[in-house]
Amino acid sequence: MKTATLASIALAMSVTVANAQTIGVSMSDLDKFRTALLNGVVSHGKTVSGLKLVTENAKGDNELQKKQVQKLIADKVDAIILAVSDGDLGPQMTKMAADAGIPLVYINNVPSNLLDLPENQVVVASNEKESGTLETKQVCTLLKGKGRVVVLMGEPFHAAARARTQDISDVIATPECKGLEIIERQAAYWSRDYADEQMQEWLSAGVKFDAVIANNDEMALGAIRAMKKAGMPMKDVVVAGVDATDDALAAMVAGDLDVTILQSAVGQGAAAVEAAVKLVNREKVPRENDVPFELVTPENIAQYLPKSQ
Question: Which of 53, 44, 57 is nearest to 15 (CA)?
């Protein structure tokens, strides 16, 4: 499948709008990362002459998000940027937009109907094969290929959660990391509080582990909070997350977090706006538009601090 990098998108797309246009933005929820994602969309939207953004937050309610998208369609927006919590909502959202003839850009989460998207619907996301793979390889390196691992997963039906969790298993299946063993794996729904609670349960049950691999930073931070409350020395455990949020980078500077992966909210937001503008202007956009992940460790964190999300 043909993909485009953020750099090529930036070069290929115009940042001006011939006539005043309106793009509707529907977010499934606004946790730490998705707030940064929305901010990325809004900040880039301000650089596009003549462009107006209308934003909606479904607050984790899929039915509410459908109604919000229906309203954006009824209000005759020129394009929609859509962050769904569940990729399986894709077919329904695609049909609504397609029936109305409105271009649709899926951002961050890949819809289940990716291969069936019409020409005026595209995806802007990061290749999840990179995220969990980079994260777990670094954990493997830090543990020298041996150790007991607990895994904190995001929303079970979120494509990123499924992919990142599969990445962990794939890395552990490689010869250099086969000494790692997943002893517990539970969903904490991208939430710091849920991860805190889950870690407390594991600690209360006497679960012994050498590393925590979380599908995102919020869950990694929740696990850290629980371990610190229990008096567990953070130097004795490797903790990894994904997103390189400002809180995660602060935790890394403090010596609590060992690994995170930058998923550029700014990059995805900018690329989504550019894709929407180009689709409105009836220009071609690749179906899949990739914004690369980057490994962040204590050794290279200095270069990431200025662009924390």
Answer: 44
Whether residue 161 contacts residue 153, with contact meaning beta carbons closer than 8 Å, is answered with: yes
Give domain 128-263's CATH superfamily: Response regulator (3.40.50.2300)
Band the pLDDT of 1: cuts 50, 70, 90.
very low
Residue 301, φ and ψ in degrees, nearest 5: -60, -30
- If we measure between CA atoms, which residue out of 32, 31, 52 comes closest to residue 41? 52
Concatenating the DSSP letter of every residue in 65-104 gives HHHHHHHHHHTT-SEEEEE-S-GGGHHHHHHHHHHHT--E
Domain 22-125+265-290 falls under CATH 3.40.50.2300: yes
Rg of the chain taking only CA atoms, in angstroms: 20
Q: Where are the domains of the chain?
A: 22-125+265-290, 128-263
The SS3 call for residue 108 is coil
Mean local confidence (pLDDT), 244-248: 92
Please give the average per-residue pLDDT across 31-58, as a whole number.
95
Regarding pTM above 0.85, the answer is no
Q: Report the distance separating Cα 34 and Cα 12, nearest Å.
A: 26
**pLDDT tens-digit map of 89-136:** 999 999 999 999 999 999 999 999 999 999 999 999 998 889 999 999
Mean pLDDT of all residues belonging to the chain: 92
